[in-house]
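Subject: Sanity check before I submit

Could someone independently write out the structure tokens for this chain? I want to compare against mine line by line before I put it in a report. The sequence has 248 residues.
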Amino acid sequence: MTVYAIIGGTGLRQLEGLSIRQSLAVDTPYGAPSAEVQIGEYAGKDVLFLARHGHPHRLPPHKVNYRANLWALKQAGAEAILAVNAVGGIHGSMGTGHFCVPHQLIDYTSGREHTYFADDLEQVTHIDFSSPYSETLRQQLIAALAAECVDHSSQGVYACTQGPRLETIAEIAKLARDGCDIVGMTGMPEAALARELDLDYACLALVVNPAAGKSAAIISMADIEQALRDGMGKVQSTLARVLKGQAV
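---
Independent answer below. Compare away.
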């Protein structure tokens, strides 16, 4: 049976309903992860949980130790990662409250520790990253969203920007020309590191605001926080359905 780990992003610092058996402080060769790995039972299944930004939320996207986080989950027994991300909507169909299970991504970040092979002096390692997400996990998430009757898109291109600031109107226009549908700040190098560790990985993205220039309104943190509050129940019910094996 697959051991799932959930990485909670902004708005999901704790997994409500998780019966915690152990909070594991994992020592990794890459330093400390964002938080302790919580090991417990959720929706009747064993699961691991890690808060990407720490608990309380303290780490901006460019300061997250992605290498330590993925290593800690692998060391704790994870085989598949369900990553929850809050994103902005670029494509017209990606309105606030919409869910997207992206099938592709473009990395616009810089300066992040993005590989486990940086110090390997014996050989150069090139992973195949043509399809950055596990199709099996993607289909489980898509089926779970459909079963929950949640408004969603079964594919999309995730643009990962550096943060922590939000993007300019011109930058979003460029991302749209590049073919991006949603924009976030934490999708990379997380997905690539999971691939290097042979962990299945998929993203459940919740749109919490229209990206810059996609609405006449000013982007407000209060509105984003409200969208997170409104959407987290659907996030958790979707994850529960995947874990129960009722998604397909």
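---
OP: Matches mine. For the report I'm noting this point. The two ends are 16 Å apart (CA to CA).
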